[in-house]
């Protein structure tokens, strides 16, 4: 029996859904039949078939207005993917309190604000709703240079389990711990295509994820196929990161055998 993800008739909000990983998620949800709304602080061109609204997800009033606009336009809200996030490289000793506050606000507090606003709608719907938080492998390992980001993502994983308990049975809440993903900015971010290729050789599956692969996991968690999945964190990292000592040791041995 074929198992298909069908989100026809469902209204989805993807924060930061016009670019990068968010765009891949939006594309997959659209193909599954969902009505998709993306949001961001600036104008952007979402995938064909989606609409884009302005919102600062760190601001509660802006978030409330966003959710109200979606419900006014579509009559409901069935799925939220809290994807907005990220952080530039900055050593913790050098970064300002304002910098840390912004990083934690974008990667943790914003997801709580959007989830709260969505939950108020979903709790009134007979079919309830689903919330998917886009977290990171940085939640579970050291994150030097992005310490506040890693701490925020660890908080997001913890938030996921708590909201699942508070808001069930009407609303399911899950997270995806995302590993390395290829985006149009990957080469610039990691220092060129050669460096990206070297990094990919350390991943068990031999490559970084495509953004749409993250979308596939999000679509599954939003679908009826995951009707009994809540409070879960799904690892989507291609097999995980090779321990540094093992990578160094293997390369040392390769050098000795040349």
From TrEMBL:
Pfam family, one: adh_short_C2
GO biological process, one term: fatty acid biosynthetic process
Parts forming coiled coils: none
Swiss-Prot/TrEMBL keywords: Oxidoreductase
Transmembrane segments: none
Tagged with keyword Chaperone: no
Ketoreductase domain boundaries: 10-184
InterPro entries attached to this UniProt entry: KR_dom, NAD(P)-bd_dom_sf, Sc_DH/Rdtase_CS, SDR_fam
One example GO MF annotation: oxidoreductase activity, acting on the CH-OH group of donors, NAD or NADP as acceptor
UniProt xrefs under PROSITE patterns: ADH_SHORT (PS00061)
Matches recorded under PANTHER family: 3-OXOACYL-[ACYL-CARRIER-PROTEIN] REDUCTASE, SHORT-CHAIN DEHYDROGENASES/REDUCTASES FAMILY MEMBER
Family in the record: Belongs to the short-chain dehydrogenases/reductases (SDR) family.
The name this protein goes by in its record: SDR family oxidoreductase
Gene source species: Nocardioides humilatus
């Amino acid at each position: 029996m074929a198992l298909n993800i069908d989100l026809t008739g469902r209204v989805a909000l993807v924060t930061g859904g016009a670019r990068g990983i968010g765009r891949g998620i939006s594309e997959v949800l659209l193909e599954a039949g969902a009505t998709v709304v993306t949001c961001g602080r600036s104008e952007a061109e979402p995938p064909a078939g989606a609409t884009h609204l302005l919102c600062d997800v760190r601001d509660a009033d802006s978030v409330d207005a966003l959710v109200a606009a979606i419900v006014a336009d579509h009559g409901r809200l069935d799925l939220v993917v809290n994807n907005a996030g990220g952080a530039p490289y900055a050593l913790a000793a050098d970064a300002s309190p304002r910098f840390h506050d912004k990083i934690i606000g974008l990667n943790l507090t914003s997801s709580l604000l959007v989830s709260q606003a969505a939950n108020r709608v979903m709790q009134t719907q007979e079919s309830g709703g689903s919330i998917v938080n886009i977290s990171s492998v940085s939640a579970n390992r050291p994150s030097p240079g992005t310490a506040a980001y890693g701490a925020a993502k660890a908080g997001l994983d913890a938030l996921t389990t708590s909201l699942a308990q508070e808001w069930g049975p009407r609303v399911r809440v899950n997270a995806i711990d995302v590993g390395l993903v290829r985006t149009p900015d990957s080469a610039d971010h990691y220092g060129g295509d050669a460096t990206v290729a070297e990094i990919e050789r350390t991943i068990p599956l031999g490559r970084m994820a495509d953004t749409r692969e993250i979308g596939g996991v999000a679509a599954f968690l939003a679908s009826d196929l995951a009707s009994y999945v809540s409070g879960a964190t799904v690892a989507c990292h291609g097999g995980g990161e090779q321990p540094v000592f093992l990578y160094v040791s293997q390369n040392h041995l390769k050098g000795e055998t040349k």
